[in-house]
Design a protein that fits this description.
Layout (H helix, E strand, L loop, with lengths): L1 H42 L8 H15 L7 E6 L9 E2 L10 H10 L3 E8 L5 E13 L3 E10 L1 H17 L1
Antiparallel strand pairs: 1-2, 1-5, 3-4, 4-5
Helix pairs in contact: 1-2, 1-4
Length: 171
């Protein structure tokens, strides 16, 4: 009986923590997406459009600042599937492998913000459970891109592990 109670408790805590994280992450990603659209529109409005590299660097830099210090999430600005040429950028040594191909394809096909659970993959080989959120954008003078946010579940995983451990001790 104790095992069933502990299992139910861990499941409820897990569901609550992940739901809250997903809700907050979607809110942040949506705000950043809107900011990116404004930055990209402004970059295309002047008499002399900046180079694609400067535009991409500026967008990623501004959005990275929104993530705080230490960063609550990572940002990737990647070419849309089928697009060639043009710069790609990411923050904090996060790898484009963090973005599932299925998510990128859905963003391209549906033309709207989408999300999925994923694994944050870093260039040093480390990995963390995460949530990936993607949205379409257009970089002036280059073409279609996708803006991704990767939100690690590190804090949530630590809390779930603590609850599991406490449940095992109590059981």
């Amino acid at each position: 009986v104790v095992v069933l109670v502990v299992t139910a408790m861990v499941n409820r805590v897990t569901t609550g923590l992940l739901s809250d994280k997903q809700e907050r992450s979607l809110t942040e990603a949506t705000a950043d997406w809107q900011q990116a659209l404004q930055l990209l529109a402004a970059a295309d409005a002047g008499p002399a459009t900046a180079s694609p590299e400067r535009i991409v660097d500026g967008v990623v830099s501004d959005l990275a600042a929104n993530a705080g210090s230490p960063a609550r999430y990572d940002v990737l600005l990647l070419r849309a599937p089928g697009e060639v040429g043009g710069p790609e950028r990411a923050t904090n040594l996060i790898s484009p492998a963090s973005v599932p191909a299925e998510l990128s394809a859905e963003v391209a096909a549906l033309g709207r913000q989408m999300w999925t659970n994923s694994t944050a993959v870093f260039l040093d080989g480390s990995q963390d459970a995460a949530m990936a959120v993607g949205a379409p954008v257009e970089v002036p003078g280059v073409g279609d891109y996708q803006l991704f946010h990767v939100f690690p579940y590190t804090e949530q995983s630590d809390i779930i592990s603590l609850v599991r451990s406490a449940g095992l001790v109590a059981g």
